[in-house]
Specification:
- This protein is an alpha/beta fold.
- It folds into two domains: 130 residues, hypothetical protein tt1634 (3-Layer(aba) Sandwich), CATH 3.40.1520.20; 114 residues, 60s Ribosomal Protein L30, Chain: A (2-Layer Sandwich), CATH 3.30.1330.60.
- The chain is built from seven helices and ten strands.
- α6 links the parallel β8 and β9.
- α4 packs antiparallel against α5.
- The chain is elongated.
- The chain starts with a strand and ends with a strand.
Length: 250
Amino acid sequence: MRIALGFLLSLMCLTDAAQAVQDKIVVSGTVPTEAMRAQVLSRLRDLYGAEKITDQMEVGNVVAPANWDQYVLKMLSPNLRNISAGQVQVEGNQIRVSGNVKNEALRQEVTSTLASSFNQTYQVHNTLQVSSGQQALDETLGQRTIEFESGSAILTAKGRIVLDEMAQVIRELNNARIAIIGHTDNVGLRESNIELSLARAAAVRQYLIGKRIESSSMSVTGSGPDAPIADNSTVEGRSKNRRIDFKILN
């Protein structure tokens, strides 16, 4: 996300080629005072975490509209976290917001919140779009993996937390048909890895059934080590290859 302030405050959420959210927030532009810069950074760090904020703001000799700082800080609300691959620009009293949200209800909620953050002298130009189902799944999973106990198909507590988030998104997809695909690294016998990857995919499906996802809407496949996304010769690469993918079939 990129936020452009002042005469350009940009907030951008960056994605990689696989549409996995990088969780990087870039804030840039010119603000009237150092105090305003500090307030904006503090608000964004509270919203996203300090480690995710890249500060490219400058303090310059610019004249802001009356109460501009109050309106901008009000705009920087938790609702912005619903926007991915997006940008918010504030140029004087012109507000432009673009990007993706997961559903129409969120689009309307974000739109309403932005509109209520400013008075009638401001104009909000909104081009938010509802993500495709696949994009919503990819963005929710991000760069995380569904974790299992070592060498087994037993979900860890962290794995269940991620699946709880995935279940919420899947329910919003109106029973779209989804393939759950298990993958492993290349350590050990291929046949054993295929069996393990299938068992893990089946465990994910069973967990999601318990979260009120229709069993008939989910299929499972075990690809074992046959579809790596990273180098199996490194520890980091093998970790990335041990994963669960979610693919919409219709």
